[in-house]
């Protein structure tokens, strides 16, 4: 069963103005919330930096202590050798004293070296944590900047609505898409930071404190504790990379849409579940960056929906590159559904998954369709025209992600 959903009918000028005011208020509220998230990230970043500086100072002092103990240990070993060689002159008491002093310094040196190794590892881990927090902070600040730009766009021409209803309709659509996309990114970022990265970092802090208390318990206990800590750090870094990939895969900017889709398919396949196959027809090339983002998000949403709801045994992504068009299709052999009913539920719940895919495609003048039926799998299709957009009117000007 095929379905192509249409945009809502054009409201009158008064309705557009009311919607615009409401949209602008919602956008301002959302920007304030993301600004709060930025503040919390900045605080976490500063705390991590301060902790890193403290650990660096502790490591430097420990290194100086090791150097001093090494020098004293060398002197003590020389004294032991000297009195042992001339035993008749110094006697048993002097030999025992020299031996005990050399042994004492050797033990102190071993403990200091263990503390040095621990502090070096802790310093390295904190440096990685600070770097990742800085990356997250930069992304959150970018989202806030995008929302501020959208707010300024919507607030730019608040008067004279009646003279151009169609112009206000276009602005309303742009604002609605911007809010939906940015709000979804805000929720995902906050949820992932809370559920994975923040919890992982909190656990690391607890484990570090425990490690400090265990320093006196002996080398074996510290080694086991450090092994647990390294495992926890690796898990947290893996979850952090997942957050970053979901926000915006770097390969999309560096290598383009085709490589990003292939990398995404490989990444999804590592998570378990049905394999994702990617097939490309035509000459591979780069496209307009905003179009690449929109096409990638459609693939991402379609694959996620299939995995989440369809229970398929396989998923296939087909990309056909023509001279004047880009056609992408995501097919699965899952349980299928009724598209009309799915759209109705999406509107009732305020979900933007299906609707956002279609609106992304229509924003570029493309065509979007879903073919599905219970027990027959699902086919999501999007066709983008490859048009040269004027610089002041290309969809990328909205910076919707």
UniProtKB/TrEMBL annotation:
Its EC number is 2.7.13.3. Keywords: Coiled coil, Kinase, Transferase, Two-component regulatory system. One of its GO terms (molecular function) is kinase activity. The keyword Transcription regulation does not apply. Residues 31-153 form a coiled coil. InterPro entries: DegS, HATPase_C_sf, HATPase_dom, His_kinase_dom, Sensor_HK_TwoCompSys, Sig_transdc_His_kin_sub3_dim/P. Residues 297-388 form the Histidine kinase domain. The keyword Coiled coil applies. CDD domains: HATPase_UhpB-NarQ-NarX-like. It comes from the Bacteria. It catalyses: ATP + protein L-histidine = ADP + protein N-phospho-L-histidine. PANTHER family: NITRATE/NITRITE SENSOR PROTEIN NARX-RELATED, SENSOR HISTIDINE KINASE YDFH. This is histidine kinase.
């Amino acid at each position: 069963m095929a379905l192509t959903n249409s945009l809502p009918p054009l409201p009158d000028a008064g309705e557009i103005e009311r919607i615009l005011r409401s949209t602008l208020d919602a956008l301002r509220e959302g920007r304030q919330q993301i600004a709060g998230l930025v503040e919390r990230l900045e605080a976490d970043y500063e705390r991590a930096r301060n902790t890193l500086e403290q650990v660096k100072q502790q490591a430097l002092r420990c290194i100086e202590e090791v150097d001093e103990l090494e020098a004293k240990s060398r002197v003590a070993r020389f004294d032991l050798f000297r009195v042992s060689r001339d035993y008749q002159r110094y006697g048993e008491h002097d030999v025992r004293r020299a031996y005990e002093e050399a042994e004492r310094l050797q033990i102190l040196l071993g403990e200091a070296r263990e503390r040095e190794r621990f502090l070096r590892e802790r310093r390295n881990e904190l440096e990685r944590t600070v770097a990742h927090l800085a990356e997250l902070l930069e992304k959150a600040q970018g989202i806030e900047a995008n929302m501020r730009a959208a707010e300024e766009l919507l607030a730019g021409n608040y008067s004279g609505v009646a003279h151009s209803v169609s112009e206000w309709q276009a602005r309303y659509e742009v604002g609605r898409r911007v809010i939906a996309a940015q709000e979804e990114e805000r929720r995902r970022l906050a949820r992932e930071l809370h559920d994975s990265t923040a919890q992982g970092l909190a656990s690391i802090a607890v484990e570090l404190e425990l490690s400090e208390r265990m320093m006196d318990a002996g080398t074996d206990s510290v080694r086991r504790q450090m092994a647990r800590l390294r495992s926890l750090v690796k898990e947290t870094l893996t979850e952090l990379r997942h957050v970053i990939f979901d926000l915006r895969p770097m390969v999309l900017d560096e290598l383009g849409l085709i490589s990003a889709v292939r990398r995404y398919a490989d990444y999804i396949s590592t998570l378990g579940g049905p394999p994702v196959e990617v097939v490309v027809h035509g000459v591979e090339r780069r496209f307009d960056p905003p179009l690449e983002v929109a096409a990638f998000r459609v693939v991402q949403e379609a694959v996620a929906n299939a995995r989440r709801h369809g229970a398929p045994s396989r998923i296939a992504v087909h990309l056909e590159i023509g001279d004047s068009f880009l056609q992408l299709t995501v097919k699965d052999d899952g349980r299928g559904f009724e598209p009309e009913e799915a759209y109705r539920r999406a509107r009732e719940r305020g979900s933007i998954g299906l609707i956002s895919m279609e609106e992304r495609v229509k924003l570029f003048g493309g065509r979007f369709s879903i073919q599905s039926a219970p027990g027959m799998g699902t086919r999501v299709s999007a066709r983008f025209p490859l048009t040269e957009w004027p610089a002041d009117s290309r969809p990328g000007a909205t910076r919707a992600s």
